[in-house]
Design brief:
Largest sheet: 7 strands, parallel
Number of helices: 9
Radius of gyration: 19 Å
Oligomer: single chain
Number of strands: 13
CATH superfamily of one domain: NAD(P)-binding Rossmann-like Domain
Distance between the termini: 52 Å
Strand order of the largest sheet: 3-2-1-4-5-6-11
Structural class: alpha/beta
Bound molecules: nicotinamide-adenine-dinucleotide, uridine-5'-diphosphate
Amino acid sequence: MRILVTGGAGFIGSHLIDRLMNAGHEVICLDNFFTGDKKNLLHWLNHPYFELVRHDVTEPIRLEVDQIYHLACPASPVHYQYNPVKTIKTNVLGTMNMLGLAKRTKARFLLASTSEVYGDPEVHPQVEDYRGNVNPIGIRSCYDEGKRVAETLAFDYHRQNNVDIRVARIFNTYGPRMLENDGRVVSNFIAQALQNKPLTVYGDGSQTRSFCYVSDLVDGLIRLMNGDHVGPINLGNPEEYSVLELAQKVQAQINPAIPIQQKDLPADDPQRRRPDITRATSLLGWRPTILLQEGLELTIADFRARLAAQSEHSLSTDPLKV
Ligand code: NAD
Ligand code: UDP
């Protein structure tokens, strides 16, 4: 098949492309490189079945494809709040453009939605029928309301134009290739610990998240795309940890002597988050397989290698060294 992956130079998108290329598909990646990096795809650049197009999804594009994985959108609060109006445009105009493309080509369209559509949830764990508790005017709204509109658009194109859609609600995902300066909690803690800096815990650290390793998530996305169920379907790891527990795990795996530094809790930070994955398990036969301990080890190894390469590079380009 010829498969389009928007946001394919980013963290999840590049892992998804690895899986699709290894399965023998032809892949087109669209990315504006806001938070993505060509380096994540370097190993495919000369492959005859791979095409990388610098393109902003807020602009229409004409392509012929069989499936569309629509991931283009910054995912870290730091990045999506950098230019909130652009984030909304990406979610609304970008999703509309990609749904228009799906309509014209009759391609199946998968939306990478998010657990953020549940806002600061009053139902725990979160089931897909829960309609959420979202602040429409807060600093996270550009992302969570943006994704809610993206879901609405997907379902309206489905009802009105018969577009074949799939909607995944992705919960916190982590793994190799997250940006070191991404601002998300797993990447922050690992980068901080490896650089002997204090781990920044926002608030008292009692807020919870459930962390899914990226290979498990990609497996869920592929099953959803190729299965018969439209969704929305939660994809996430139901093992729930407080942020403080996560900090302690990172300390234990990297350096128990690294201190914890408390910082202010950002506005509208959800207090608890954990997916109910009954639908994913029963409809897709999917459940995560990688435990946090193992996933953290793999992620730490990747960050360690990248940070070492960076410091080697900065030494070799340091004029004082010669
Ligand atoms: P990421 O920031 O690493 O990747 C997003 C990619 O989209 C980047 O390559 C970026 O350059 C590209 N992009 C952003 N705006 C664009 C635009 N206007 N046009 C073209 N490309 C654009 O984030 P990620 O963690 O890989 O997330 C991928 C998708 O999954 C996002 O849609 C995100 O909302 C969703 N998601 C991620 C998580 C998570 O925990 N990682 C959780 C829920 C949902
Ligand atoms: N967080 C933290 N320290 C950090 C970064 C994040 O304590 O250095 C907290 C953040 O306040 C939130 C949780 O970790 O409660 C997850 O944050 P992240 O940005 O990774 O994802 P999201 O809030 O979008 O789930």
